[in-house]
Fold this sequence. Notes:
The protein is an alpha+beta fold. Helix content is 67%, strand content 7%. It has a 4-stranded antiparallel β-sheet, covered by helices on one side. Helix 1 (2-30) runs antiparallel to helix 2, helix 6 (142-160) packs across helix 9 and helix 8 runs antiparallel to helix 9 (217-237). The radius of gyration is 31 Å and the shape is elongated.
Amino acid sequence: MTLLISALALTSFLLSLSLTPLCRNLARRFGLFDNPGDPRRIHKEPIPRVGGVAIGVSYFSCYLVVCAFPSIHLQLQSPGLMQIYTLAPAAMVMFATGLLDDLIDLTPLQKLAGQSVACLIAIASGVRIHQVGHLPIEQWGDIPITMLWLLAATNAFNLIDGIDGLAAGVGLLATVATLLAALMSHNTALVIATIPLVGALAAFLRYNFNPATIFLGDSGSLLIGFLLGSYGVIWSQKSATLLGMTAPLFALTVPLLEVFISILRRFLRRQPIFGPDRAHIHHRLLERGLTPRRVALLLYGVSAIFASVSLLASFLNGTYFGFVVIPFCAAVVLGVQYLGYVEFDLVRKMVMAGGFRRSLIARISLQSLEGALKSAATVDDVWDALYASAAELKLNDIELRTPFRTRRAQLHGAEPHQCLRIQVPLSCGWCVFLSHKFSTDGSHVVSTSAALFADSIRSALNDRIPALLAGAEATGDSRTLAMK
């Protein structure tokens, strides 16, 4: 078995070392470049982008090459390796999806469709998450959970592939961690599956590390992420401990954290989930003054630490679960805080300072205001609704001005220079004025509530005024008729 492992590692390494410059030269001939025009790109010159072809061909071909040796060929026929063989079609579909995107630029939905097909093939081959911790997953429930995991791992490496050598280097460290875990647990199939990827990535980094002469492209990043996600499931299937699925999560911390952060901040900003931007982890580190090489080395170090934690988690066998997970979570929180995402900082301030509660109260008050204005039968009803809502929102003052009558209430004492005044013009010569004191706690909840208050008044009251005047004429309300 040692001969087989050594042969696979050496063959994949040599294949990748020779095929990578060949792919680079062919990409240059056919104009397959990653051009620097996009603001997300940090390179200055066009770089060939189909490096994943060298990794994919090296990974799949090394098994065929070593089969030329009879003694090794017999070892590869072991029944325990069947799951690895059945995973190959799924990996090839994922590789083909990435390659198509490199060649013709697929849409996000087309890429997701290809990825989903590959994941379903992998699930059909037996790559399934049967339990999380000690909680078993009911029949058929493992399919969506496994699908979500594989898609997350696949796209995670696609997201971090923005710095020379970053995705390939992090992938190498995660693969080495998976390989060591397989050796510790005597999982021969997982060892044979991971060792060629170690060799291929190690050779590819010779050309991909800063300054890179070739990029992975989607053909490489999607394949690496998919294989590591699948290996993580195979790793967890051999573990009956609480840390069964946690250890693979640790090994893929950096790319999976990128996925989580990207989805959350785009959700908070109401941006497309699949939309590109320049706010990834490596971009934030570049904005802090680090060079691309230092960013890659820093994230290598972080990945190495988390990979070591994953191995420690497997070694401890769940005995000291809290001692592993708590420092891990604390390190992740501190790391995200260091990156300085404005979205998360504002959410934290809102929660800690009670801003979320005040915002919720304001929304409830505004809904009540709109209902009261739409059902108001007299001007007195309108004024009562305005006054009650302004008081609940802690506005400084409120004024209802009509052509023949004005009502005004001072709710809080504040100097004019401390307040912002808002005018809300309405139909039939009506107008509402309100003012609020500038926010001093940085939450801006009051300012936002005042603006929403003004919008609610106009949307609920503007079309209501003619009906109020008509109703007053029908009932003989002298005060309202005077306004008419």
